[in-house]
């Protein structure tokens, strides 16, 4: 039986951004309806952050055991039970998803409806064929889905949405895409004993734009695993036993390789196809995404807001949370929307070594207006102690004021150094202020001090990067 529901605010999508938007809109005393067409449970908990980090944790355990002889510690044996690895991933993933489901179940039943929503007018939605929603304001928070290149055969093809449902580790896998998803999963599977080849169209890996940091990362991974960069996938031919991947390298030579599976890791696309945006009256960009103000999340002047991965800008959980909060609050305030300050850009890849990018990336720096502070981890004290002495940190500061602009790094514990730098960027700290902070010895953070000192010297004298390991000298 068809019915019509009238509400103040309709939120399409119950992922991270949608749930936060619901909570903020509801706190403003509005009648809010949350609409979800797929399974409840955020991308992060179900198919993203958490299951991937569980796989990485298992890989790190084996990798550390394999490194033990270099410390003089000889393990009796090291073996991998693939079924046990995948069972733990699924069990812990389901536990994290359970926390999200608990939150959804606390939402009153009259405030949520299941089904796929599409616009039938700028302020009306049709949910499947059973319910019409008339809403004064609408928040689009439909998330994203894996992007799958047409040239990949669908048989024995995996994405980041389903690889964690495997009951055992595969014998081999071809990973198409050398971005964060491809490199995290690829290195983890490689370290768990899976034969892995990573294919990338360009010569770049991960999210790095600084050429020196990019080179350090690319060279490291090329020394550890089978990296097929500057390589085009021509096609894949699959049968019940595996997949043949035909590719062409930078040298123009074609080759065929056999794998148990192919993983498409070429990014994610916004879930917009089923929304009927042609009826929403919104201006779209070249990719078909509604144009919006990132400080209000409002689409043009319409009573429509967009938040989370669906806007294809910053597909990161803490950004989805922030955007959901802004969208939900402004939907409740409409038409008196308020612009909000956004977090400093911050992204981490949990490879080993890790990568992090903070604030302005190298590619966005204004020519002639910055200095670069550099620190190598090759001879950094704490890094060598832990046998994690690989990588490079480069931070950028304004050449006039000394204000920290951003940083890119590939090195040990980059997730922690990245947080320190993100906080410093957001507070508008200068190099002098950073140098006034305490640095304990011996710690990875001393590498940050080396880079800050290097940039500070260049600010005054134009000296070249330091090569000596002053982190090994107490009080340096």
UniProtKB/TrEMBL annotation:
GO terms for molecular function: flavin adenine dinucleotide binding; NAD(P)H dehydrogenase (quinone) activity. The keyword Iron does not apply. FAD binds at residues 53, 142-144, 309. It holds the Pfam family Pyr_redox_dim. Residues 8-324 form the FAD/NAD(P)-binding domain. Belongs to the class-I pyridine nucleotide-disulfide oxidoreductase family. This is Dihydrolipoamide dehydrogenase. It comes from Paucimonas lemoignei (Pseudomonas lemoignei).
């Amino acid at each position: 039986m068809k019915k019509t529901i009238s509400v103040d605010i309709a939120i399409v999508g119950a992922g991270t951004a949608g749930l936060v938007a619901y909570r903020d809109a509801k706190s403003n005393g509005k009648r809010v309806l949350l609409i979800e067409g797929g399974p409840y449970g955020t991308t992060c908990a179900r198919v993203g952050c958490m299951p991937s980090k569980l796989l990485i944790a298992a890989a790190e355990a084996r990798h550390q055991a394999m490194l033990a002889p270099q410390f003089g510690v000889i393990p009796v044996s090291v073996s991998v039970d693939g079924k046990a690895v995948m069972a733990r991933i699924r069990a812990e993933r389901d536990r994290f998803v359970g926390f999200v489901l608990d939150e959804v179940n606390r939402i009153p039943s009259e405030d949520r409806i299941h089904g796929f929503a599409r616009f039938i007018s700028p302020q009306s939605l049709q949910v499947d064929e059973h319910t019409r929603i008339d809403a004064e304001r609408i928040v689009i928070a439909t998330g994203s889905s894996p992007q799958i290149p047409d040239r990949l055969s669908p048989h024995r093809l995996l994405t980041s949405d389903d690889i964690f449902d495997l009951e055992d580790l595969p014998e081999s896998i071809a990973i198409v895409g050398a971005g964060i998803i491809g490199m995290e999963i690829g290195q983890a599977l490689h370290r768990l004993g899976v034969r892995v080849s990573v294919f990338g169209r360009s010569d770049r890996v991960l999210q790095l734009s600084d050429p020196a940091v990019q080179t350090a990362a690319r060279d490291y991974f090329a020394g550890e695993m089978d990296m097929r960069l500057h390589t085009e996938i021509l096609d894949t031919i699959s049968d019940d036993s595996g997949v043949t991947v035909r590719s062409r390298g930078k040298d123009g030579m074609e080759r065929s390789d056999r794998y148990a599976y192919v993983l498409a890791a070429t990014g994610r696309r916004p879930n917009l196809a089923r929304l009927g945006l042609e009826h929403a009256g919104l201006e779209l960009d070249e990719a078909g995404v509604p144009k919006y103000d990132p400080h209000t999340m409002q689409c043009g002047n319409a009573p429509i807001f967009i938040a989370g991965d669906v806007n294809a800008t910053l597909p990161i959980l803490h950004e989805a949370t922030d955007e959901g909060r802004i969208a939900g609050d402004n939907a409740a305030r409409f038409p008196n929307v308020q612009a909000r300050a956004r977090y400093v850009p911050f992204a981490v890849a949990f490879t080993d070594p890790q990568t992090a990018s903070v604030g302005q990336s190298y590619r966005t720096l204004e020519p002639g207006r910055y200095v670069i502070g550099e620190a190598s981890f090759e001879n950094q004290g704490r890094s060598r102690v832990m046998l994690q002495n690989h990588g490079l940190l480069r931070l950028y500061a304004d050449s006039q004021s000394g204000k920290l602009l951003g940083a890119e790094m590939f090195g040990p514990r980059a997730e922690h150094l990245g947080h320190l730098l993100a906080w410093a960027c957001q507070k508008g700290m200068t190099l002098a202020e950073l140098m006034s902070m305490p640095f304990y010895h011996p710690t990875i953070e001393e590498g940050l001090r080396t880079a800050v000192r290097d940039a500070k010297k260049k600010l005054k004298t134009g000296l070249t990067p330091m090569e000596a390991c002053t982190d090994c000298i107490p009080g340096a």
